[in-house]
Write a structure and sequence with these properties.
The complex is a heterodimer.
Chain A (H helix, E strand, L loop, with lengths): L1 H13 L9 E5 L4 H13 L4 E5 L8 H8 L3 E5 L1 H7 L7 E4 L12 E4 L5 H10 L4 E6 L1 H18 L2 E6 L5 H8 L6 E3 L12 H11 L3 E3 L11 E5 L1 H16 L15 E5 L1 H6 L9
Parallel strand pairs in A: 1-2, 1-3, 3-4, 4-5, 6-7, 6-8, 8-9, 9-10
Antiparallel strand pairs in A: 10-11
Helix pairs in contact in A: 2-9, 5-6
Chain B lengths: L1 H9 L2 H50 L1 H6 L2 H12 L4 E8 L4 E6 L8 E9 L7 H5 L10 E10 L1 H51 L14 H101 L3 E2 L2 E2 H34 L6 E4 L1 H11 L8 E6 L7 E3 L1 H16 L7 E10 L4 E8 L6 H5 L18 H11 L3 E7 L3 E9 L2 H10 L1
Parallel strand pairs in B: 8-10
Antiparallel strand pairs in B: 1-2, 1-4, 3-4, 5-6, 7-9, 10-11, 11-13, 12-13
Helix pairs in contact in B: 2-6, 6-7, 7-8, 9-10, 10-12
Classes of the chains: A alpha/beta, B alpha+beta.
């Protein structure tokens, strides 16, 4: 079936038909509900014509050729793989979203909306619950830049970030163990090294054992014992990127468009955990 | 004593029931006890296994993070904690490559057996990577094996427990069996007491004592059965009494009948004896009469001869001297009268001789001598002469004798006897002694038979009597001197002559007796029959 689809696409691409004219080529890593929500947000905010290519539908996709032949004015990469593929060409500016591993300072005309909130915004949550020493476990190779920004913001807020660096998921439990008695809150970053499926449990055991609130990055973790979740709004991210795309199409150079963190924070709390930990959010959350 | 007791016991319903009850209870108790022991042992073993699996699972859960982090110290602590359980002999935690990260052995005597338990340590399910969580993936319950926990459990406790359980179950089972058997005996004793009463009553009745009764006062099935048996016994007793009564009556009746029959037989014997005596008397009388009668007849002949010789002489005297008297009678009258009287003397004497001869022949008989020239009309006349003195004035005997009747072969005396019997019967058939008897003889040329008919207009013979007419000693006139042999002998005689004796009668109108004799006699008839 996949082979048939590939052959069909190749046939369409090779056919001497006049190229379809559109403004934005949306490269989507795979068919995913979260990606679809974000793309909907883009379409809501940006009225440009678009063509969507889902990379997982094809065994191999020659994006460079597509762009060369179809001349889109902008490429929107949805997901890390799409960003990786889009970055292979240099002619068309790229806007990305839903890419966890996107670097803040990409080379060339690449910008977009990241998936990590501004650390200052996250730290306000710790401020609101009165935490002064916040434990963070992260892989410097993946979350180093973000951590540095967070440390700057923390210093500004008077919060001490007690950082433990891990280079393998196996190190997470012991690193968390090393935080015992040294923190009064734990910040779970979306770091794939620090937070692996095998070690995720350690965060909640630590939180439970040390009776410190765990602030995570998704509502899902509230069900496992997290106290507060700062979640992203994928549709809003799409809209945010749509505005950037509109701006780019209107003539703003993409290079001048700085990468943005998600603008909307979806704060969720586990009332039970907060009550058990006797924590209240200042200002009513 | 034992040998006597054994068959009695084995045939005792209560004992059999008790035996069945106790055996059933023993079997059930054994079955339940076995089932209980097996269930308990299995339950204990499964509890042990469950406990071990739970321990291993808990250990696997607790060891998940230390195992993932390969924290040997933490794993050793966890393993030691698990090994503290008394039933745990051995604990081992190893990673997926099979490398043992920690191991604890309990220095216990493993005894009779152990259970090995292995539980895999898996990563927590329903936990996704941060990327997936951010993308809003639904959590997938995908568990990845990261190691395993091995546990060995001691089962010697189970063996000990099994022994105690078996002992306790045996003791309780035996106690239960004894108690229930005793209770069963008491219940059976109570239940079968009615049955025993019933059986005793039935046996008593069955032995013939129908006045015995089952003394069972209850309204259950046995009570109803006892009532039914009592009713049956009462009914049988009543029937028995009735039978006895009937038997006695029958015996009495039989005795009476035998006595009456005896009387009848004796009467017949007496009558026969009388007849025999009468025959002898007749013979004797005939002899006594014949002698003087012969003298009278001889005297008559002599008188007649003398008179014949005297008459010419007296005629000469008469002619010469005139008439004179003899015995006061003028000679001319006396001449004829004397001759006539002499002839009468002879004639009557001969008649006397014939009558006497007839009586003699009737009484003594002249054997089975057959005459080839027997004249039936002559036999009829002889019979009538014998019966002459029996004739009554109110009975009119008419005869219509055929003229051309041929002679037959037969015994005149026997034929006369037949005719006398028939005529006497006809004469006795008139209830008031008044009637008409018609005696006819004729020749049936076609059949070559001589037929003698005696017909009367008397009371006739009823059908019941008609059936028994030819039975010997059957008579409706036994009280009037009948012997019951007349018709029987007559039929015998006629049959001996090759003929038939037929009787037809209409009650109230009269009877016709027909004697049919073959002209050729019995030989011809026999030949005819032979042909």
């Amino acid at each position: 079936m996949q082979l048939l689809r590939t052959l069909l696409v190749c046939l369409l691409l090779l056919a001497p038909l006049p190229a379809l004219a559109y403004d934005i080529l949306v490269l989507q890593s795979l068919r995913e509900k979260g990606y679809d929500e974000a793309v909907k947000g883009v379409k809501r905010e940006c009225a440009a014509t678009m063509r969507t290519v889902v990379l997982s539908d094809y065994a191999e996709t020659d994006i460079t050729r597509i762009i060369r032949e179809e001349h889109p004015r902008l490429v929107i990469a949805v997901g890390d793989r799409a960003l990786e593929v889009a970055e292979k060409q240099r002619n068309t500016p790229v806007l990305y979203m839903m890419a966890l591993h996107a670097k803040p300072h990409q080379r060339g005309a690449v910008s977009g909306v990241g998936m990590l909130f501004d650390p200052a915004r996250c730290l306000t949550v710790f401020e609101s619950i009165g935490s002064k020493r916040v434990g963070v476990v992260c892989d410097p190779s993946k979350s180093g830049a973000y951590l540095r920004r967070a440390q700057v913001a923390a210093r500004r807020s008077g919060i001490e970030l007690v950082v433990r660096e891990v280079h393998s998921p196996k190190e997470t439990p012991s690193m968390l163990d090393s935080l015992r008695g040294k923190v009064d809150a734990l910040w779970m970053l979306p770091d794939v090294t620090a937070v692996s499926p095998e070690s995720t449990e350690a965060y909640f055991l630590f939180s439970q054992g040390e009776r410190v609130p765990l602030v995570s990055f998704a509502e899902f973790y509230l069900t496992m014992g997290g106290a507060i979740a700062l979640g992203i709004d994928r549709f809003d991210i799409g809209k945010q990127l749509g505005a950037m795309a509109q701006s780019a199409l209107e003539g703003t150079p993409v290079e001048s468009l700085a990468p943005q963190p998600p603008r909307r924070v979806m704060l969720r709390v586990n009332e039970g955990v907060l009550r058990r930990l006797k924590i209240s959010i200042a200002g009513g959350g | 004593m034992k040998s006597l007791l054994k068959p009695r016991l084995t045939k005792n319903f209560r004992f059999r029931l008790y035996l069945i009850f106790t055996a059933t209870i023993a079997l059930l108790t054994a079955a339940f006890a076995s089932f209980y022991v097996v269930t308990e042992v299995n339950g204990f073993r499964s509890t042990l296994e469950r406990e071990g699996r739970l321990l291993a699972t808990v250990l696997a859960q607790n060891a998940r993070l230390p195992l993932f982090a390969e924290n040997r110290e933490a794993l050793a602590l966890l393993a030691a904690g698990t090994a503290r359980y008394p039933s745990v002999l051995f604990v081992s935690i190893s990673n997926t490559e099979g490398r043992v990260l920690t191991e604890v052995k309990n220095p216990k005597d493993t005894g009779s057996g152990a259970i090995d338990m292995r539980v895999e340590v898996t990563s927590p399910g329903l936990v996704a990577s941060p990327e997936a969580v951010l993308l809003g993936h639904a959590p997938v319950d995908e568990k990845r094996v990261i190691g395993r926990v091995d546990l060995r459990l001691d089962t010697s406790g189970a063996q000990e427990r099994l022994k105690k359980l078996v002992a306790a179950t045996l003791a309780i089972g035996t106690l239960f069996w004894i108690v229930v058997s005793l209770l069963s005996y008491q219940i059976l004793k109570r239940v079968t007491s009615s049955f025993n009463l019933l059986m005793h009553g039935i046996e008593e009745i069955g032995s013939g004592n129908l006045s015995a009764r089952v003394n069972l006062d209850s309204d259950d099935e046995l009570g109803r059965g006892a009532n039914a048996i009592n009713a049956m016994a009462a009914s049988l007793e009543l029937r028995e009494l009735e039978n006895l009564s009937l038997q006695e009556e029958l015996l009495k009746a039989m005795k009476l009948e035998v006595q009456e029959e005896k009387k009848r037989v004796m009467a017949r014997l007496i009558h026969t004896n009388k007849m025999t005596s009468l025959g002898l008397l007749l013979s004797s009388m005939a002899h006594e009469i014949n002698n003087p009668n012969a003298s009278i007849r001889f005297s008559g002949h002599i008188i007649a001869k003398i008179w014949a010789d005297v008459v010419p002489l007296l005629d000469g005297v008469w002619r010469e001297e005139g008439d004179f008297y003899l015995g006061g009678i003028p000679f001319q009258k006396a001449r004829g009268a004397l001759a006539d009287n002499a002839a009468k003397i002879v004639e009557n004497s001969e008649r006397i001789a014939r009558v006497v001869q007839g009586l003699r022949d009737y009484g003594v008989g002249d054997g089975a001598r057959l005459r080839p020239d027997l004249e039936v009309n002559g036999a009829v006349a002889a019979a009538l002469s014998v019966l002459a003195c029996q004739m009554q004035q109110d009975i009119w005997l008419k005869t219509a004798l055929g003229n051309d009747i041929p002679v037959i072969t037969g015994n005149q005396h026997q034929i006369e006897q037949v005719l006398i019997n028939l005529i006497l019967n006809a004469m006795q058939s008139f209830p008031d002694g008044r009637g008409e008897v018609l005696l006819t003889t004729r020749h049936d040329c076609i059949r070559s038979e001589v037929v003698v008919e005696v017909e009367d207009d008397g009371v006739g013979i009823c059908a019941e009597t008609m059936e028994r007419l030819f039975e010997p000693f059957f008579s409706t006139k036994l009280d009037r001197g009948g012997s019951g042999l007349g018709l029987y002998i007559s039929q015998y005689i006629v049959a001996e002559h090759g003929g038939r004796l037929q009787l037809t009668s209409t009650p109230g109108k009269g009877t016709l007796a027909r004697v049919i004799l073959p002209v050729g006699g019995p030989a011809q008839k026999g030949e005819g029959a032979g042909r």
